[in-house]
Amino acid sequence: DAKTTQPPSMDCAEGRAANLPCNHSTISGNEYVYWYRQIHSQGPQYIIHGLKNNETNEMASLIITEDRKSSTLILPHATLRDTAVYYCIVRVVIQGAQKLVFGQGTRLTINP
Amino acid sequence: DSGVTQTPKHLITATGQRVTLRCSPRSGDLSVYWYQQSLDQGLQFLIHYYNGEERAKGNILERFSAQQFPDLHSELNLSSLELGDSALYFCASSVAGSFSGNTIYFGEGSWLTVV
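Predict the joint structure of the above. Result:
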């Protein structure tokens, strides 16, 4: 069901920027891209979302390509606490009903 | 703290039994969503309610049912429980009923163990 593709795992050194890619080539013009993360069976934590412009908040930056077929989540100065599974999500419409469907995500490991 | 409250946090019950999981959405949120996460599995969408009405269904078993009450809290009822129903059940809430820039916040989940 998921409309996004992410690498299953990534590593990043502590203090460096973590760049997490996501492909969403079938995204429609009015669909937002959402990013969440889940730290070891805790509730998924909202990070950021965007439509077409790049977005930044206190947690991360979201870069969306001009054709909107892919995006990158950037954690500017990764810490050990950023180790988590990161989900890139696009709304799915099935039988007229909208759903937010999670894929397998990217398991990001921050190394000291 | 997301503001979404789920109870109980942990629950152990026997096969064949019935349990009810409760969710209180964030203040002002009209939508409630339920997700299931089995061990080492992804989050599976179960059902979405908006202002008391069912909006969307996912892969929810017929043994499971949910409702949203006038005060907007929601309950997920799981009956004739099987070992495979052991999972984390998450509730999430949002202000609106669509995903057009609408942020969804998740609770910390209810751990259900069926023995």
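Chain B touches chain A at residues 2, 4, 33, 35, 37, 42-45, 48, 55-58, 88, 90, 92, 98-101, 103-109 (CB under 8 Å).
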